[in-house]
Design goal:
Blueprint (H helix, E strand, L loop, with lengths): L15 H7 L6 E8 L2 E7 L1 H13 L3 H19 L5
Antiparallel strand pairs: 1-2
């Protein structure tokens, strides 16, 4: 297992062999999360593709239905919070 260091700007250099095998190129983007007390995970993501997919899905949303569902849920939560009977 190769080792690397964090530089003074917080950057970590991934070993060349790993970058080649995983097809990691300059400019690729990653989600970063804490896996445990001493472990992090990097997940390669394609933000442009994710945004394109979200935009396509949003085109099919019925805004009137969506607004009605939000209002219904807000009313339900308000009735619950203030203990109002239906």
């Amino acid at each position: 297992m190769p080792f690397t260091k964090v530089d003074d700007k917080g950057r970590v250099v991934l070993p060349n062999d790993l970058r080649r095998r995983l097809g990691i190129n300059p400019g690729d983007e990653f989600a970063v999360d804490e896996l445990g007390p001493d472990a992090i995970v990097l997940k390669k993501i394609d933000l442009k593709s994710l945004l394109d997919e979200i935009i396509e899905k949003a085109k099919n949303v019925d805004l009137d239905k969506f607004e009605a569902e939000i209002e219904e849920e807000a009313n339900r939560l308000a009735r619950q919070k203030y203990k109002v009977l239906n």
